[in-house]
Specification:
alpha+beta; single chain; about 70 residues; three-stranded antiparallel sheet
């Protein structure tokens, strides 16, 4: 049995995901930077839904937490 994920639900409050463009805006990065990070396995975990890349909000927040700069 296959499970279909409706990509129209991405971004809804009950489906906390960001598309690639949304994460790029959140972090003020280019989508090319996120693409390079995926290629180099240095960015947050992501899901590939067909041609669409989405990031779970929980993965984004975990990535942010591990990259906090403790300097004040």
């Amino acid at each position: 049995m296959t499970h279909r994920i409706d990509t129209d639900d991405i971004g809804r409050p009950d489906r906390p995901h960001l598309v690639e463009e949304g994460l790029a805006q959140r972090w003020r990065l280019s989508t090319r930077t996120l693409q390079r990070w995926r290629r180099d396995s240095t960015g947050p975990a992501y899901l590939r839904l067909g041609r669409r890349i989405v990031y779970r909000l929980s993965e984004i927040e975990a990535f942010e937490a591990t990259h906090l700069d403790g300097r004040t």
